[in-house]
Amino acid sequence: MKQVITLSAVRLEGQEPDYRQYIPPMQARRMSTTLKRTLVCARQALEKAGVEMPDAILCGTRLGLMDHTNRILDCLRENGEENVSPTDFMQSTHNTMASTIAIQLGCHGYNCTYSQGENSLDNALLDARLLLEEGSCRTALVCTEDYATVLSVKPEE
Predict the structure, then answer these.
(1) Which of 3, 56, 65, 91 fits a disulfide with 140 by CB distance 3.0 to 4.6 angstroms?
(2) Residue 65: which of 23, 36, 105, 45 has the closest Cα?
(3) Long-range contacts: 12-16, Cβ < 8 Å, 24+?
(4) How confident is the model at residue 35 (pLDDT cuts 50, 70, 90)?
(5) DSSP string, 108-132
(6) Residue 6: which pLDDT band, with cuts at 50, 70 and 90?
(7) In the predicted model, is pLDDT for residue 138 greater than 80?
(8) Domain annotation covers residue 61
(9) Chain-wide mean pLDDT for the chain?
(10) The domain spanning residue 35 has which CATH number?
(11) Residue 9: which of 147, 125, 148 has the closest Cα?
């Protein structure tokens, strides 16, 4: 049996999208811009592909939402343990993007995040391909989100 694998790519450019179309406002206010953008891109990709619910969600990210981790560390350094934001803590792990997409969609299928530096997206794509080829799933949403931070830019030698 042959399988047709369609990849849909969505990239947000220009103006910020109307997040209210995709995320309830009370939930959106607790999300970083990066997380909201990732969720909107995922929903738009699924819409373009005509997929209501993916069987699997895979994410490849070099650093995850490192800005939240940096805020936690800055707060600990400046204020001790008293004023650490629970929101920053919840959004500081690498799997925040894939898990947020799954929660928002109500997807209870395969969910995996790869965080192996520059190979992260390649590993997520390979995993999706293997899942599709072995018949473990029929649809897979593969996403990535990375941005430049002090930690991601190699200093000149």
Answers:
(1) 56
(2) 36
(3) 12/37, 12/40, 12/41
(4) confident
(5) -SEEEEE--GGGHHHHHHHHHHHHH
(6) very low
(7) yes
(8) yes
(9) 78
(10) 3.40.47.10
(11) 125
At 10, list the tokens: 């969505």
Tokens coding 51:
């997929």
Q: Which residues of 119-143 are buried (b: 16+ CB within 10 A; e: fewer)?
A: ebbebbbebbeebbeeeeeebbbbb
Backbone angles phi, psi at 71, to 5 degrees: -65, -40
Whether residue 76 is contained in a domain is answered as: yes
Question: Could you tell me if residue 150 is inside a domain?
Answer: no
pLDDT at 150 over 90: no
Give the number of domains in the chain: 1
Token pair recorded at residue 6: 């369609």
| CA dihedral sign of residues 86, 53, 147, 15 | negative
Q: Cβ contacts of residue 77 below 8 Å, gap of 6+?
A: none
Domain that holds residue 77: 21-144
